[in-house]
Amino acid sequence: IPVALGGESIVYNLPGIHSGLHLTRQLIANIYLGKVTSWNDRAIANLNKGTRLPNLPIIVVHRSDGSGTTYIFTDFLSHVSPAWKKTVGVGKSVNWPAPSSVGGKGNEGVSGQVNNSPGSIGYVELAYAVENHMDSAALQNQAGDWVNDSPAGVASAAATKPGISAQNFSIVDSGCASCYPIAGYSWAVVFQNMADRGRARLIHDVLSYVVGNDGQRIAGTLDYVPLPQNVQNTARGALKRMHF
């Protein structure tokens, strides 16, 4: 059941640089592959002329626990980097190749590692980055435009794929000018048949509220993006297959 839609911010800790950092899609992949290891690397400097980048090693922070957040991020990396797709791939938990890689449990663990480690870079949900006032990079999307993680950019990415299913749902690296490239859906997985009929009905009713208009309005106030109407319809159709 698709229940939420959001973006993933690329957050960083660079002393004296709290805004204006620009990173391309390929550059993010090369950082996470361990091919770009210093913040004053020419590839980063050429994108950020006028910004005095420190001579600091890049500490690559990732989720240590299996997560949908990691799935979306590695799906993005696999779309933009053939090397990543071939050597690492997509998953909720992967073997991180950069020698400087460190893990943190949950968004809070990643943000804690980033906040406490000058020179670090990581990925967290947009809502978490906003709530914790974290510095985040502007990314160059597939269309060549520079975009910051925002509900509008996530909604644009979702609009490029009007039909999704539990087997076909990726909206990373979408091609429109306003699309934010690291975006995706969160899902709830439920049994179609449950022995406890009362519990099944309760789960059905809760999820019906979550994917309905009232629940999705709340999502919009929490830096998530309300599910598009067609995706709400997909969710309702899936819920009808529950037996209770």
Strand order of the largest sheet: 4-3-5-1-8
Order of helices and strands: EEHHEHHEHEHEEHEHHH
- Helix- and strand-based class? alpha/beta
The radius of gyration is 19 Å
Percentage of residues assigned to helices: 25-40%
So how many helices? 10
Low-confidence stretches: none
Largest sheet: 5 strands, mixed
Instruction: Compute the average pLDDT.
Output: 96
Distance between the termini: 17 Å
Strand coverage percent? 15-25%
| General shape | elongated
> How many β-strands, per DSSP?
8
Describe the structure.
This protein has 244 residues and is α/β, with parallel strands linked by helices. It contains 10 helices and 8 strands. It has helices at residues 25-33, 42-47, 68-80, 82-87, 106-116, 126-131, 151-159, 197-211, 213-220, 229-239, and strands at 2-12, 22-24, 59-63, 102-104, 120-125, 138-140, 146-147, 183-187. It has a 5-stranded mixed β-sheet with strand order 4-3-5-1-8, with helices on both faces. A 3-stranded mixed β-sheet has the order 2-6-7. Helix 8 packs antiparallel against helix 10. The longest helix has 15 residues, at 197-211.
Explain briefly what this protein structure is.
By secondary structure, the chain is α/β, with parallel strands linked by helices. It contains 10 helices and 8 strands.
Architecture blueprint of SSEs:
Layout: E1 2-12, E2 22-24, H1 25-33, H2 42-47, E3 59-63, H3 68-80, H4 82-87, E4 102-104, H5 106-116, E5 120-125, H6 126-131, E6 138-140, E7 146-147, H7 151-159, E8 183-187, H8 197-211, H9 213-220, H10 229-239
Parallel strand pairs: 2-6, 3-4, 3-5
Antiparallel strand pairs: 1-5, 1-8, 6-7
